[in-house]
Design a protein that fits this description.
Elements (H helix, E strand, L loop, with lengths): L1 E12 L2 E12 L3 E5 L9 E13 L5 E13 L1 E5 L27 H10 L8 E3 L9 E3 L4 H22 L1
Antiparallel strand pairs: 1-2, 3-6, 4-5, 7-8
Length: 168
């Protein structure tokens, strides 16, 4: 995420080095810490060493604090990059059913065009115009053009899942 931070800089003014405070936009990774559970939903526990200060008294009756360790049982956690919000699907959700006929699902070309433009894609072979010279002509979709895009998306998601599984 982006945030504003102040920092000290030195500028030369009339031959004098002057420290000034400036503001800049910086980026930091945002993470979430997730508790780990087993397949039944029970917390997965782990033993960790905890450092604490223990008070001890010497033979003369003087007390002092010395570092000590002890084992504690805590729930296992993993740290993952902040997950992005899920965007609304680009397909239409209108489905009609005719008795005795097969159900077909599809996407709406106008919504696909808007979704592609929103992510900076202006030219995609999966979206077509009936008349390339007339922007108001009927819009259509070539579903076979979506196959490589979907395969690539599955590969990316599989890699993310594998990485998350290796972290835990």
């Amino acid at each position: 995420e982006e945030y504003e931070e102040e920092y000290a800089d030195v500028e030369i003014r009339d031959g004098v080095a002057v420290q000034v405070i400036k503001t800049r936009t910086a980026t930091r990774n945002v993470i979430d810490t997730l508790s780990v559970v087993d397949e039944s939903g029970n917390p997965v526990m782990e033993t960790k060493k905890e450092v604490y200060l223990e008070e001890v008294t010497d033979a003369d009756g003087n007390t002092s604090s010395v570092p000590a360790t002890r084992e504690v049982e805590v729930q296992k956690t993993i740290t993952v990059p902040r997950m992005q919000k899920i965007q609304e699907p680009v397909y239409g959700d209108e489905t009609t059913f005719d008795s005795g006929k097969r159900t077909h699902f599809g996407m709406i070309a106008q919504q696909v065009k808007e979704a592609m433009a929103a992510v900076g894609i202006d030219d995609f072979a999966g979206w077509t115009l009936a008349d390339a010279e007339n922007p108001d002509s009927r819009q259509g979709l070539r579903y076979e053009q979506f196959i490589p895009v979907l395969i690539n998306a599955v590969k990316e998601l599989s890699a993310q899942v594998k990485e998350l599984q290796q972290r835990s």
